[in-house]
Amino acid sequence: WAEAARLVLENYSDAPMTPKQILQVIEAEGLKEMRSGTSPLACLNAMLHSNSRGGEGLFYKLPGRISLFTLKV
């Protein structure tokens, strides 16, 4: 999930995106194999939140109520 989300934010958007927007691009571009029985949005959302905490995370969550993510620079 992290690699697919990184590719989306690097190559398909100039602005922060919601997990749902990121997932739409992942699905449209075939960047991640989807398994039946899982919730892709829940998996992506959990990964984004866990990888936006601390100094080592790859993603940055913008402050506010809406979950908007971008890559850390």
UniProtKB/TrEMBL annotation:
Keywords: Transcription. GO terms for biological process: animal organ morphogenesis; positive regulation of transcription by RNA polymerase II. It comes from the Eukaryota. One of its GO terms (cellular component) is PR-DUB complex. Residues 1-73 form the HTH HARE-type domain. Pfam families: HARE-HTH (PF05066). InterPro entries: ASX/ASX-like, Asxl_HARE-HTH. GO terms for molecular function: chromatin binding; peroxisome proliferator activated receptor binding. This is ASXL1 isoform 6. It comes from Pongo abelii.
